[in-house]
Design goal:
- With 90 residues, this protein is of the alpha+beta class.
- Helix content is 37%, strand content 38%.
- The chain contains three helices and four strands, in the order E-H-E-E-H-E-H.
- It has a four-stranded antiparallel β-sheet.
- Helix 1 runs antiparallel to helix 2.
- 20% of the residues are buried.
Length: 90
């Protein structure tokens, strides 16, 4: 199974989780794990997802999620698990 890491950061507003999860469900991306926090009005969410059921490749999903983020006022990043791990290795 290939995993994808999705991060969402921005000012907290109503519906962020709903809009991101609706996009993922509409594209057959399964959420395996999710964590979200709100600190002094700043929203932060991290998801581990399985995009293997989607017809779209990770690049297309990443672009569309970034566009969705622009539309709802947050920054959404989507990376393959291997890239995320290499970028965050100490």
């Amino acid at each position: 199974m290939k995993k994808t890491i999705i991060t969402v950061v921005g000012n907290d507003t109503v519906g962020i989780i709903a809009k991101v999860c609706t996009y993922l469900a509409d594209n057959n991306v399964n959420i395996l794990d999710i964590s979200q926090t709100i600190v002094q009005g700043y929203f932060n969410m991290m998801m581990v997802a399985d995009p293997s059921g989607s017809d779209k490749d990770i690049a297309s999903l990443a672009k569309e999620l970034a566009d969705l983020g622009d539309k709802i006022g947050v920054v959404i990043r989507c990376q393959h698990e291997d890239i995320f791990n290499k970028m965050h290795r100490i």
